[in-house]
Inverse folding.
């Protein structure tokens, strides 16, 4: 399997992140870095694209990754994700029969982060039949077991996911929305019910940041 690892940043990408990719020994790969400081990265197979950070638009950066990817399998990730040592071997075991894919995401302490997310499922997000209303506009996110399959209630958190290039060409990220403005929810609701979305439980990434909440109310 061949992979493009597309990384968005506002600063620079740490050697720890890059080394976690390189040591996978992927048969053919490339690393595309969009944004941040101009840096002469010392590792192979890296292309760096400068970006006007004053625009602050992460969605544009992700679409630039799609445009410049050489391979069909694209990993979209922010600069604070690190691949587990067995990430690539897990994908070889999992296989290539998917359009959009997720794998296990953990906090630094090993607790689960937002990998297989449910958004406003009336049965499991609002037990007892409750649901958000105009008087109570909060939305509920939960992390169900990986066998959950109601794609109409799912969303992919925009910090990390994997997709085939042709999907992202057909369904680009909405550039009128930026990071933190529900661009990931809009995209997820647009695509997940239309394409083959699967969970790869054999591969894992971790956050380099401090522990973050996995499920919470969001406005």
């Amino acid at each position: 399997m061949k992979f493009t690892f597309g990384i968005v940043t506002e600063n620079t990408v740490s050697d720890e992140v890059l080394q976690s990719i390189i040591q996978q020994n992927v048969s053919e790969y490339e690393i595309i870095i969009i944004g941040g400081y101009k840096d002469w990265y010392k590792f192979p197979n890296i292309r760096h694209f400068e970006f006007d950070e004053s625009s602050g638009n992460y969605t544009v950066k992700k679409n630039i990754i799609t445009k410049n990817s050489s391979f069909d399998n694209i990993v979209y990730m922010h600069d604070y994700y690190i691949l587990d040592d067995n990430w690539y071997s897990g994908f070889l075991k999992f296989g290539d029969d998917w359009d959009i894919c997720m794998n296990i995401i953990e906090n630094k302490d090993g607790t689960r982060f937002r990998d297989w997310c449910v958004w406003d499922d009336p049965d499991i997000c609002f037990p007892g039949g409750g649901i958000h209303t105009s008087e109570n506009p909060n939305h509920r996110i939960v992390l169900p077991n990986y066998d959950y399959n109601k794609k109409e209630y799912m969303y992919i958190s925009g910090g990390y996911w994997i997709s085939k290039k042709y999907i992202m060409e057909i369904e680009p990220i909405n550039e009128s929305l930026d990071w933190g403005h529900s661009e990931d929810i809009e995209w997820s609701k647009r695509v997940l019910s239309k394409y083959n979305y699967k969970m790869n439980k054999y591969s894992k990434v971790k956050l380099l940041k401090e522990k973050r909440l996995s499920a919470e109310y969001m406005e």
User: Anything to note?
Assistant: The domain at 2-113+156-211 is CATH 3.90.550.10 (Spore Coat Polysaccharide Biosynthesis Protein SpsA; Chain A).
